[in-house]
Amino acid sequence: ETGVTQTPRHLVMGMTNKKSLKCEQHLGHNAMYWYKQSAKKPLELMFVYSLEERVENNSVPSRFSPECPNSSHLFLHLHTLQPEDSALYLCASSLYGAGGPRTGELFFGEGSRLTVL
Amino acid sequence: TQLLEQSPQFLSIQEGENLTVYCNSSSVFSSLQWYRQEPGEGPVLLVTVVTGGEVKKLKRLTFQFGDARKDSSLHITAAQPGDTGLYLCAGGNQDQFYFGTGTSLTVIP
What we know:
- The complex is a heterodimer.
- By secondary structure, chain A is mostly beta strands.
- Helices cover 0% and strands 55% of the residues of chain A.
- In chain A, the strands form two sheets. In chain A, strands 2, 4, 5, 6, 9, 10 and 11 form a seven-stranded mixed beta sheet that branches.
- Chain A starts with a strand and ends with a strand.
- By secondary structure, chain B is mainly beta.
- Chain B has strands at residues 5-7, 10-14, 19-24, 31-37, 44-49, 55-58, 61-65, 71-76, 85-93, 96-99, 103-108.
- In chain B, the strands form two sheets. In chain B, strands 2, 4, 5, 9, 10 and 11 form a six-stranded mixed beta sheet that branches. Chain B has a five-stranded antiparallel beta sheet with strand order 1-3-8-7-6, with no helix packed on it.
- In chain B, a hairpin with a 2-residue loop joins strand 6 and strand 7.
- Chain A binds chain B through residues 2, 4, 6, 31, 33, 35, 41-43, 45, 48, 50, 55-56, 90, 92, 97-101, 103-111, 113, and chain B through 4, 30-31, 33, 35, 40-45, 48, 50, 88, 90, 92-102.
């Protein structure tokens, strides 16, 4: 059983739909992340939240909108997506950030497989 | 962007063989992790190394962090079908983890 839960596991949407991905972590961690995993590409960091504040936005198109209402929940709101946005979206959490003397290991959810038609 | 390149990209071996996967970068990292990901699942952490030159063993898996903290290797002894999966290295700095390109391992019974 994972301490990071993502819903839905699978999502099919049209280009004009609005949908949201949800992530919940039960580990008491301070940082949460959204990653995009596409075939034959490294995991791409999309957003980082530390103590509910966004600390990183890696030039992600505005059709992806994150929301972190508290330290346990993270959302990714999707609007007017393109077929090339089809991918596995992974949520992760870490007790601390990645750097410094603390190891800040990532704990991943099982992912939400998104297909944009 | 801090790139980590993994080699080989794909590896298919017979059960019982040994293998080594490499993770290389020109950047220095404060920590380095190895993850294994199975199809349809998220990556699962295998190990974290934080000290240059550090070696960690996890049963048949041996992980090493380079002296300069820019590279790492994963060695598997006597591979088993259960070792099949995508192996990812990830370097940590500040608030980010930078992931490698991945090595897809298939162990044939």
